[in-house]
Amino acid sequence: MQTLPKERRYETLSYLPPLSDAQIAKQIQYILNQGYIPAIEFNETSEPTELYWTMWKLPLFGAKSTQEVLSEVQGCRSQFNGSYIRVVGFDNIKQCQVLSFLVHKPNRY
């Protein structure tokens, strides 16, 4: 058994290496398959006390394909490259966020 090196972990899936665009697409497809509403959020920091992130545009209520969501992720990346960016899945029945994962971490080290 090995102890992980001490480094900050962020959101769901943060113990894995950074996700490729294909892996992000699979996670987004899961969100769509579950009937959740995808949204993209960004923030300059990812501190545990930072509860509220800025939403990139409106939630993607009508999104039917992963490509629609990925194109919005790319748009957010190009405009806010120095920010953390995550994809969030909202459950419209429970009226809450049910999952989120980082799709971009800024290079600050």
TrEMBL record:
Its GO CC terms?
carboxysome
Say yes or no: keyword Lyase present. yes
Ribulose bisphosphate carboxylase small subunit domain ranges (all copies): 9-106
Instruction: Determine the domain of life of the protein's source.
Output: Bacteria
Matching entries from Pfam families are given as:
RuBisCO_small
Q: Which GO terms describe its biological process?
A: photorespiration; reductive pentose-phosphate cycle
Q: Which UniProt keywords apply?
A: Bacterial microcompartment, Calvin cycle, Carbon dioxide fixation, Carboxysome, Lyase, Photorespiration, Photosynthesis
PANTHER family found in the cross-reference section? RIBULOSE BISPHOSPHATE CARBOXYLASE SMALL CHAIN 1, CHLOROPLASTIC
Q: How does it assemble?
A: Heterohexadecamer of 8 large and 8 small subunits.
User: Which named protein is this?
Assistant: Ribulose bisphosphate carboxylase small subunit
Q: Which gene encodes it?
A: cbbS
